[in-house]
Design a protein that fits this description.
By secondary structure, the protein is of the alpha+beta class. It has 10 helices and 12 strands. Strands 1, 2, 3, 4, 5, 6, 8 and 12 form an 8-stranded mixed beta sheet that branches. Strands 9-10-7-11 form a 4-stranded antiparallel beta sheet, with helices on one face. It is globular. The chain binds adenosine-5'-triphosphate (ATP).
């Protein structure tokens, strides 16, 4: 049996940090949207025991270090089903270490496939719980779509889809350490928090401008100077006609939101020339609806 599953990237329409928890994690509140920039994850059931992972990017972990393999191992541990021999191949399209949850999404794609093939009676909620044991972003990636993610990211509430729009997404060549950013947040008082309730109300009204006005990521407030490209890309996007632009996750990827396709396409092209990366994307619906 061979299954091919898309593993969509996510963008943070907002990212807020509410505090630090006793368990060392931070309490987050994020509005996330899946986009049509996706890896292609192929899961083959094979006769040899064990889980093999390969990818078209040679530097990704091949064995148990890959999030796709970790997800499969967790699935068998949690369900008690006899571990099947799996050969997983990832065609990587989502930039790595980009704040777009590419690895988590690969893990989530594997979980969806295993549930479909081996445990069709399992609820979506149970699959998300297994995902939470793999990584904080995995439950959201299992579900996909537009959602509010709270806690470590595992407490999810479905939200109305982002109103029709176009996105220009740019991952500059630098990479940012997520633990370093979290440590900086502790050291410095955040000057501003996103209006998450206002963004949810705007989504409920289908008000794209209202969403755009409230796009904000608190990590931008503590970003060290050496990541100046993040702000250069934001200004470039705004200059190229984006209604709004923001960094996603712990960066360094920046995206701009456009009402119309043409300026978004042009912006992606300009960014490719200036920063070596620029992709035109659209938001996509939830995993429940688009990946059956
Ligand atoms: P997040 O937005 O969840 O913080 P990210 O986009 O910053 O994630 P990823 O690309 O998901 O980062 O993962 C980066 C790290 O995870 C790299 O060190 C990479 O080697 C490792 N990794 C393990 N499995 C994968 C995978 N399937 N795809 C990408 N990275 C993987």
């Amino acid at each position: 049996m061979i299954y091919t599953e898309p593993a969509c990237a996510k963008l943070n329409l907002s990212l807020d940090i509410l505090g630090k928890r006793a368990d060392g994690y931070h309490d987050l509140r994020m509005v996330m949207a899946s986009i049509d920039l996706a890896d292609e994850v192929t899961v083959s059931f094979v006769s040899e025991p064990g889980i093999q992972v390969s990818a078209d990017l040679p530097y990704l972990p091949r064995g148990g270090g890959n999030i796709a393999a970790k997800a499969a191992e967790r699935f068998f541990q949690e369900t008690g089903l006899p571990p099947a021999g799996l050969s997983i191949h990832i065609r990587k399209r989502v930039p790595v270490c980009a704040g777009m949850a590419g690895g988590s999404s690969d893990g989530a794609a594997v979980l969806r496939v295993l549930r479909r093939a081996l445990a069709p009676e399992m609820t979506e909620e149970r699959l998300e719980e297994i995902g939470a044991l793999v990584g904080s972003d995995v439950p959201y990636c299992v579900r996909g779509g537009t959602a509010l993610a709270e806690g470590r990211g595992e407490r999810l509430t479905d939200l109305p889809a982002l109103p029709p729009c176009w996105l220009a997404v740019c991952k500059p060549p630098c990479s940012i350490s997520t633990p370093e950013l979290f440590s900086l947040v502790r050291l410095k008082k955040l000057r501003c928090h996103p209006d998450t309730a206002g963004m949810i109300a705007a989504l409920e009204r289908g008000d794209l401008e209202g969403v755009a006005r409230r796009m904000y990521n608190v990590f931008e407030d503590v970003l060290p100077r050496r990541y100046v490209q993040v702000f250069e890309i934001k200004s470039a996007l705004l200059g190229l006609g984006a209604i709004s632009a923001s960094m996603t996750g712990s960066g360094p990827t920046v995206f701009g939101l456009f009402r119309d396709r043409e300026p978004a396409e042009q912006a992606a092209e300009v960014l490719r020339g200036q920063f070596g990366s620029g992709v035109l994307c659209r938001a996509v619906g939830s995993g429940r609806h688009s990946f059956s």
